[in-house]
Automatic annotation (TrEMBL):
GO terms for molecular function: ATP binding. Gene3D superfamilies: P-loop containing nucleotide triphosphate hydrolases. It comes from Leptolyngbya subtilissima DQ-A4. Keywords: ATP-binding, Nucleotide-binding, Transport. The keyword Transport applies. Pfam families: ABC_tran. Residues 2-209 form the ABC transporter domain. Belongs to the ABC transporter superfamily. This is ATP-binding cassette domain-containing protein. InterPro entries: AAA+_ATPase, ABC_transp_ATP-bind, ABC_transporter-like_ATP-bd, ABC_transporter-like_CS, P-loop_NTPase.
């Protein structure tokens, strides 16, 4: 289970707390939504859970083990800007081979064209590059996926195709997913339950199950 326990975070000692006393869990294979108004700290919380930021207080663990400092992180974060997540000097096939090489049928399910593999990131559109960023996370070492506005830049059809492929993979591999989005209909469609961060900073509110 992915657990964030009593998390507190602020970007500098003189700045206000962005995350205050937040706790949440995601079970293997579960799809949990996270919603709150803009600027409330969803992305910050996502970064804490994926080990991009260290909490000031509290801790993040997977099966009661803290996130590894050096090894591949079992909690992978895909955010809205794929160009920030890939090495601009590497060709796409090298980016994909960096971790555990994805299988052709997986690439196909995500709508990744074989012709893209020899290109550089700047030679793909934002939506095309996002599929590469997603494909890279769907590997046997990933236990939890945090999707922070992951498909916000895609048209409705592509969004549906991508989520279908991602959920088919995460369900069959028992990967837990945390979906961060402002798109309420999308959250209702995808998620087993939805947490509202704004409802309280102190305890979780179950909006739907
Ligand atoms: N690197 C940073 N340094 C200082 N403050 C930051 C930094 N990143 C974010 N913040 C602030 O932290 C707060 C929470 O930001 P965050 O991006 O986590 O919110 P969010 O809920 O994901 O917002 P949105 O829905 O608009 O993406 C905001 O007030 C933001 O200005």
């Amino acid at each position: 289970m992915l657990t964030g326990e009593g998390l507190w975070f602020r970007y500098a000692p003189q700045l206000p707390w962005v995350v205050q006393s937040q706790s949440l869990t995601v079970k293997p294979g579960e799809v949990v939504g996270l919603m709150a108004p803009s600027g409330f700290g969803k992305t910050t919380l996502a970064k804490l859970l994926a080990g991009y930021l260290m909490p000031t207080q509290g801790g993040v663990s997977v099966d009661e083990q803290p996130l590894p400092a050096r090894r591949y992180c079992p909690v992978q974060l895909v955010f809205q800007n794929p160009e920030l997540a890939v090495n601009p000097r590497w060709r796409i096939d090298q980016i994909l081979r960096e971790g555990h090489p994805p299988q052709m049928h997986q690439l196909d399910a995500l709508g990744i064209h074989p012709g893209w593999l020899s290109r550089y990131p700047h030679e793909l559109s934002g939506g095309e590059l996002q599929r590469i960023a997603i494909a890279r996370t769907l590997n046997p070492q990933t236990r939890y996926l945090i999707a922070d506005e992951m498909t916000a830049m895609l048209d409705a059809n592509t969004q549906a195709l991508i989520w279908q492929a991602v959920l088919a993979y995460t369900r069959s591999h028992q990967i837990g997913v945390l979906v961060v989005s402002h798109d309420w209909p999308l959250m209702r469609r995808l998620c087993d339950r939805i947490l509202d961060l704004a409802a309280t900073q102190d305890h979780r509110t179950l909006i739907s199950q």
